[in-house]
């Protein structure tokens, strides 16, 4: 299951802001904020884009 806390940790570990990750994905920073605060979870397409933007594996953002 997707974890907003793990996403935040993965992003911080790479020294990226929410805005930087969102820009790499072509999205608004609001998406990243919602995901990190577990208000929403990324859909399949956005999950792929997120993993690419962070350069990480699925296990890093799931429990």
From TrEMBL:
It comes from the Bacteria. It holds the Pfam family HTH_3. Signal peptide: none annotated. The keyword Transferase does not apply. Keywords: DNA-binding. The keyword Chaperone does not apply. Residues 7-61 form the HTH cro/C1-type domain. SMART domains: HTH_XRE. This is Helix-turn-helix transcriptional regulator.
């Amino acid at each position: 299951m997707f974890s907003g806390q793990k996403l935040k940790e993965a992003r911080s570990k790479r020294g990226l802001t929410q805005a930087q990750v969102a820009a790499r994905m072509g999205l608004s920073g609001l998406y990243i904020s919602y995901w990190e605060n577990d208000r929403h979870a990324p859909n399949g397409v956005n999950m792929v884009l997120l993993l690419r933007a962070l350069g990480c594996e699925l296990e890093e953002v799931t429990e």
